[in-house]
Every structure is written in C-alpha cells, then in structure tokens.
Amino acid sequence: MKIGVIGLGLIGGSIFKDLKKLGYDVIGVSNSQSGENIYKDYEILKTCNLVFVCSAMNKTLEILDRLENILSPETVVTDVCSIKTFVCKKKRPYKFVPSHPMAGTENKGFENSMEGLFKDAKWIITPVFGEDEYLVEIIKQLGAKPVITTAKEHDEAVALISHMPMLISQAIFKTAQENKLALEIASSGFRDMTRLAMSNTEMANDMINMNADNIQMSILKLYKSIGDLTNSDYLDQINKIKLNRQSMFI
C-alpha cells in the first residue's frame, strides 16, 4: 500500500514518521519541509491508495477540491480536522472518509512531530458515504482506537472537551495577566490550567470561528454546572466529580 500525507505539521509529521517506521511506502507533500520522500507537487499522489490531508482547517476544503482532479475513484482520502460537519457536505469522486485523531500537544510544526503520538488515543471516524476497512486498519496500526460517530455528534463533543477548554484556558490567562502578583506566584495548577492557551494560533482561530455555535452552547452548560455546584453541597458534588473523572482514565 502506498500512502500520502499532505501537510507535515505536528499531526501530519507524526503520521508520516509512524508510517515510515511501520514500513509503508509513504510520501509527504509539504510547502515548508524537504527531505527523503517529501515533495511539493500534488501530482506525486496519483499512485497512492490512501491519502491523509493534514492541513490547517481553513485550507482543507481547497485541498480536497484539488485532489478531485488528481486521485482515482478507488483512492481513500481522510482529513484530520477537529471539526467534521464542514468537510462532510460534498460527495467526492474518491472515497472520502472524514476522521479526527484525538491527540496532539500545544506545540506545532514538523520539528515537534513524533513517533507514537497516537498510541492509545481515540481516533474519530465520521463516515458519510461509507467506512473503509483499510483506513480503520491503518489507524489501529498507528496505535489509536477507532470510534465511529456522526459529524454532528463529534462537533458537539469536541466543543465540550477541547474547544471550550482551550477558550477557557486563554480567558484564565488573560484575566490573571492583569494582576502582577498572581503571575509572580503562579505555580503548577495555573500552568496546567493555561497550557492550552499556547495552542497553535491558526488552529485555535479556526476552532472558535468554525464551531462557534457548539462552543457557545458548551459555555452555557458550563455556567449551569457552576451554578449547580455553588447551590448544592459542594464537597459531595466534588467527590462525585473526582470519582467520575478517575473512572474515565482507568
């Protein structure tokens, strides 16, 4: 199997490195990177059986359109965008299966990509026109655990566990910035709470703009949860939350 990876940032670079280690014939397409099996011309992808599109979200639709004039109808294509509804609206002449690996760091770029990034991570697949067994198998070989759902359910869920937390992280840092003493004495708790404020700026902007409705709904739910906690037996509620959280990661 020949596999192409478009965009060699943190996610694409990590997929590229893992596939090379697994022994696949893998080629990368990148405007910023160079090296063995890395090209700038999309035409090199003509002979690929599977293509990962790992570009910024605001560039993904343009790339998917461009591939329509290059790939065969039998080629499987997936993207890695953290929002799924916007890529699912158009039927493609190739086998398009949208997906999203739930892995990453606050860093960006090929220099921060790594082997093993996807080990034990969930990898969401939101098939619109059918699944693909080869893609599922590759995802498993990358060490991830495939989860099948709809694009709508995916976007609602990631707003709660990823996009809203990133926004809250940025808001916490912005608020604390106004107090010099707070920044001087800040320690591990503040560092952990604001780690997501260091997220890739372009990615963060795309998340906020492209999943705004779900993020706003998530913030309203957060307000309600804060109200529920402050209007009840706080210690009992916190203990229940701690137990539920612990059970998630066992």
Walk me through the topology.
Layout: E1 2-6, H1 10-21, E2 25-29, E3 38-39, E4 50-53, H2 57-67, E5 76-79, E6 95-96, E7 99-101, E8 122-125, H3 133-141, E9 145-148, H4 151-176, H5 180-185, H6 188-193, H7 201-210, H8 212-230, H9 234-248
Parallel strand pairs: 1-2, 1-4, 2-3, 4-5, 5-6, 8-9
Antiparallel strand pairs: 7-8
Structural class: alpha/beta
Report Rg.
Answer: 20 Å
Helix count, per DSSP?
9
Biggest pleated-sheet summary: 6 strands, parallel
Number of strands: 9
Which regions contain 5 or more consecutive residues with pLDDT less than 50? none
The first-to-last residue Cα distance is 36 Å
Q: How do the strands line up in the largest sheet?
A: 3-2-1-4-5-6
How helix-rich are the residues, as a percent range?
40-55%
Description:
- This protein has 250 residues and is α/β, with parallel strands linked by helices.
- The protein has helices at residues 10-21, 57-67, 133-141, 151-176, 180-185, 188-193, 201-210, 212-230, 234-248, and strands spanning 2-6, 25-29, 38-39, 50-53, 76-79, 95-96, 99-101, 122-125, 145-148.
- Helix content is 46%, strand content 13%.
- The strands form two sheets. A six-stranded parallel sheet has the order 3-2-1-4-5-6, with helices on both faces. Strands 7-8-9 form a three-stranded mixed sheet, with helices on one face.
- Strand 1 (2-6), helix 1 (10-21) and strand 2 form a beta-alpha-beta unit.
- Helix 4 packs across helix 8.
- 36% of the residues are buried.
- The model has no long low-confidence stretch (mean pLDDT 93).
